[in-house]
Automatic annotation (TrEMBL):
SMART domains: EAL (SM00052), GGDEF (SM00267), PAS (SM00091). Residues 308-440 form the GGDEF domain. PROSITE patterns: EAL (PS50883), GGDEF (PS50887), PAS (PS50112). InterPro entries: Biofilm_reg_signaling, EAL_dom, EAL_sf, GGDEF_dom, Nucleotide_cyclase, PAS, PAS-like_dom_sf, Rev_trsase/Diguanyl_cyclase. Residues 152-197 form the PAS domain. It comes from the Bacteria. This is GGDEF domain-containing protein. Residues 449-701 form the EAL domain.
Length: 701
């Protein structure tokens, strides 16, 4: 059994479409032109293929398909790159069919239909290649001329002379016997300096042992070689080149024809594109892709140095969003550049720094002895924010939150370490010192939050949001004057989640505006129905978030709710917090004025609990102060009583109504009633309840 038949008999396949054909070829191994590829090189072929490519078996084995191809196919595709792509496709388990222009070793064109079959050879991946000549009547197009033999020799000489690629021809002793103009221009030599010299003797190209051996072996075995190399000019400078060389036999004389082109511009472009792919253009720091490479390298070094500790630090800037919102992205970009410069100055030779995007930076720290050393370094990083960042005379103060994941303690996988550090960083935002190491509880909390966010995204479409109503009464006569609409989330299992636990996430998921609009419409519609049914002067009190108030379509949302419910504008009270007045004061003031002009009433909710700005109260169109529940709880204390009295007197001085929240006992109600005419809200009068329960409790009697 010869080598080819033995190889073919060892092939197997799991593809039914190939199995029958393979079995037939194993019985009749010479019926068609067949060869076997492993990687990109031929490892065996039948006699038909050897004849087809006009070569010898020793020259064919270990050669590649593109060694028997022109550099560029008629489609314009590079033979080397495209062949490798097709082989990779076959290695993925696909049968690949394509038309190809091959060249025999003697230079004959061979238009061929090629089919690549994925097979297994002794449990290793291989490819069985079938070559079918396109001209069925003649297996090789030896009779078809390319026209060159009919051209005058002087014309061929001129074409070579004026070619943009450098060309030189050497004899069997590798002495240069002919050069063209491009050769002289690119390398800086005259023809006289090159002729009858060996390329290596005049330093024409740099030779490395591996490169030279590959070059000579390829010429000896296959009669050709092509690849990237380094050439040397006459002034000693080097440049990258793409070179191809072919051995040609003419009348028993051996010649070597070498072509090459300067690819310096291409290499510079590749280098620039690589740099752009690896570096953050704003700060010059490594980007996310480069960071992963650095972290993978650090993990390899960590495995080789047991006993040492490494850390991934996620750093997020506190307060950066305000700079972007107030001063624009151009100023924000300058701040990021200053931050990255400080980080680099502080971390030289200590850590690798990268910018992932936005205001997030990541540091990789290696060769630490313990957690204390890592924590000390993180505190040093926080210290760079002690001094303000100054741009165009404006000083900006920033803080930072740092999350830390340790390797190998927490993980030895780059992606997981980045994820764990990110989780720790978000938890650090809520911690007092803004630095936290990752722990398993953070992961559980993160998973819980992720599930909550996922459920929340579907809650609105599943109609799981409900409104509860809490009564507001006149302290003097106990009459019902208003109903505050409070959002609740009733999950599919019946669990009721209060607004305080999920409203912050509505903003994160982008649902706050549509849900807020739904609350407005529902509350106005319900109160309008109660007013009609019970001939009541009931007011609808609806909480409005700062984000809603700043939304450009908020006035339209209010108009829509009033029109749809047919509720009079002065029967709608929009409750806003003090923080809403501080975020964008001018914009909020304008919105409140517009709401006031259409008759909607405005209340300040939880007054006294935050940084109350008394100077703003007189300039804003406010109708009601809702005094925070904390003051009602302190009515039993002399100081608490005085504070509450002062709040009520402030409202009276400004000629606006007041509502005291959190009234839970008769005694509290009596004390407040004695302080002045106003309104009360709290569990003493009623808990938040459904519309049906509210109706029964406050109107049926």
């Amino acid at each position: 059994m010869n080598h080819w038949v033995k190889l073919l008999s060892q092939l197997s396949t799991t593809l039914p479409s190939v199995e029958q054909q393979l079995a037939q070829w194993q019985v009749e191994p010479e019926t068609q032109y067949l060869a076997i590829l492993k990687g990109y090189a031929f490892i065996g072929a039948n006699e038909g293929v050897i004849r087809y490519f006009q070569t010898q078996e020793d020259s064919f084995i270990n050669a590649t398909p593109y060694d028997f191809s022109p550099r560029i196919q008629s489609s314009g595709k590079n033979s080397v790159e495209y062949t490798q792509q097709l082989i990779q496709k076959a290695n993925q388990g696909q049968v690949v069919h394509f038309n190809w222009l091959h060249m025999s070793q003697l230079g004959t064109e061979l238009p061929t239909k090629v089919t690549l079959y994925p097979v297994m050879l002794a449990e290793e991946q291989a490819i069985l290649a079938l070559f079918e000549p396109v001209n069925r009547r003649s297996r090789a197009r030896t009779n078809i001329s390319n026209g060159f033999e009919n051209l005058p020799s002087q014309l061929l000489s001129t074409i070579l002379q004026d070619s943009a690629e450098a060309v030189y021809i050497t004899n069997h002793q590798h002495e240069i016997i002919a050069v063209n103009k491009a050769m002289c221009r690119i390398c800086g030599y005259s023809a006289d300096q090159l002729l009858h010299k060996k390329p290596e003797s005049i330093g024409l190209h740099q030779v490395t042992l591996d490169n030279d051996n590959s070059y000579k072996l390829s010429l000896a075995e296959r009669g050709s070689w092509q690849g990237e190399t380094v050439k040397q000019r006459s002034d000693g400078t080097h440049f990258p080149a793409w070179k191809s060389c072919r051995k040609i036999l003419v009348d028993q004389d051996i010649f070597y024809v070498t072509l090459f082109s300067d690819i310096s511009a291409k290499k510079k472009l590749e280098s620039k594109l690589t740099e752009q792919a690896m570096v953050d253009t704003l700060t010059g720091l490594p980007n996310r892709h480069h960071l992963k490479q650095l972290l993978n390298q650090a993990l390899i070094e960590s495995r080789n140095a047991p006993g040492t500790l490494g850390a991934v630090m996620f750093m997020d800037l506190n307060g950066f969003k305000n700079i972007n919102d107030c001063f624009g992205h151009a100023t924000g970009d300058k701040v990021l550049q200053l931050v990255s410069a400080r980080l680099e100055a502080s971390c030289i030779e200590k850590a690798d720094i990268a910018r992932l995007g936005g205001d997030e930076f990541t540091l990789i720290l290696q060769d630490c002895h313990d957690r204390a050393e890592v924590e000390a370094f993180s505190q040093q990083m926080l210290g760079i924010f002690d001094a303000p960042f100054e741009i165009d005379g404006q000083k900006f103060y920033l803080g930072s939150s740092v999350g830390i994941a340790l390797f190998p303690d927490h993980s030895t996988q780059a992606s997981q370490l980045l994820s764990l550090a990110d989780t720790a960083m978000y938890c650090a935002k809520k911690s007092p010192n803004h630095v936290l190491f990752y722990d398993a509880d953070m992961h559980r909390q993160a998973e819980k939050k992720l599930k909550l966010l996922s459920d929340l995204r579907h809650a609105h479409s599943l109609k799981q949001f409900k409104l509860a109503y809490q009564v507001i009464v006149n302290l003097e006569c106990n009459s019902v004057i208003g109903a505050e609409a409070l959002l609740r989330w009733q999950q599919s299992d019946g669990t009721i989640i209060p607004a305080s636990e999920f409203v912050p996430y509505l903003e994160e998921t982008g649902l706050l505006i549509p849900v807020g609009q739904w609350v407005l419409v529902q509350a106005c519609t319900q109160v309008a129905n109660w007013r009609t049914e019970h001939h009541s002067e009931l007011q609808a009190c609806v909480n409005v978030s700062p984000l809603q108030l700043e939304h450009p379509d908020f006035i339209k949302h209010v108009h829509h709710a009033l029109e749809q419910s047919q509720l009079a504008p002065d029967s709608l009270v929009l409750e806003i917090t003090e923080s809403a007045l501080l975020r964008q004061p001018e914009r909020v003031k304008s919105t409140l004025a517009e709401l006031k002009s259409i008759g909607v009433r405005i209340a300040i909710d939880d007054f006294g609990a935050g940084l109350s700005s008394l100077s703003k109260l007189g300039s804003l169109p406010i109708d009601t102060l809702k005094i925070d529940a904390g003051f009602a709880k302190r009515l039993s204390e002399p100081q608490g009583k005085e504070l509450c009295q002062a709040m009520i007197q402030l409202a009276q001085a400004l000629n606006i109504q007041f509502v005291v929240e959190g009234i839970e006992t008769l005694k509290q109600k009596q004390i407040l009633a004695a302080m002045g005419k106003g309104f009360g809200q709290g569990y003493f009068f009623g808990h938040p309840e459904s519309a049906e329960q509210f109706n029964s409790a406050n109107f049926d009697n």
